[in-house]
Amino acid sequence: MEHRRHAPDCNPPLDGLDYSSPRPFSMWKSGHLDTLIGGWLQLQPPCLELATLALEELTIRREDLQARMKFANADLEPIVWLADARRSVRDVLLPDIQETAPKSSARGKVYVILRGGYTETNLWYGAYVGSTTRPIGKRFAEHRAGGPRSARGLPTHGIEPLYSLFAPLNPVASSRGKLREWETRLHECLAPIVPKVTGDVAF
After folding, report:
1. What are the helix (H) ranges across the chain?
2. Of 16, 99, 130, 164, whose CB has the highest number of CB atoms within 10 Å?
3. Is 188 within the bounds of a domain?
């Protein structure tokens, strides 16, 4: 897979999809998922998260051959660590954050951005973890635009937000301390699974 710079647009979450579910596409028909995978991979930027989640469902059903060919034809790789990363977030972080759910006025958010530019040894993709009080789409645009509010590597290699790794955790308390706490916890949760995890960590 060649290193490429994808369009700086931000793919929105798929309306109505339960990103916290272990199998978000369990009720979808295989043929429909197969068709959607092809479409998602042709977008610019591609919806690699949705395509990978759909591929995982088809793999469970042992109906994934055509879908894998579509990844190959698009010269893209699925996010092979996504299922384990999602499981870790559900098992490690989700119970804690549900117990300390903030008030409805909370505006804090943690987020994860899929980062390309790595090698096959690193399974092609890494993750950047951050926190913000701004809309995720606007923060993603800042990362891709470069400048002081970006982060190393994201202007060129940022691909898309990985909603299934952070949507179930948000919102979090807006105070700087709480935001940094949950950003750090999310970073540490992903680090044993994702080959490359970047972002600020408070120790």
Report:
1. 30-42, 48-60, 65-73, 82-88, 94-99, 136-145, 154-157, 176-190
2. 164
3. yes
Which residue in 149, 147, 153 sits closest to 113, CA to CA?
A: 153
64 found inside a domain: no
In a domain, 55, yes or no: no
Which range of residues forms the domain containing residue 129? 82-198
Alpha-carbon dihedral angle through residues 172, 192, 17, 174, given to the nearest 10 degrees: 10
Per-residue pLDDT of the chain (203 residues; tens, 9 = 90+): 556 678 788 999 999 999 999 999 999 999 999 999 999 999 999 999 999 999 999 999 999 999 999 999 999 999 999 999 999 999 999 888 766 666 566 789 999 999 998 877 667 899 999 999 999 999 999 999 887 777 888 999 999 999 999 999 999 877 888 889 999 999 999 999 999 999 977 65
For residues 203 and 187, what is the distance between their CA atoms, to the nearest angstrom?
A: 12
Domain count, the chain: 1
Name the pTM for this structure. Answer: 0.92
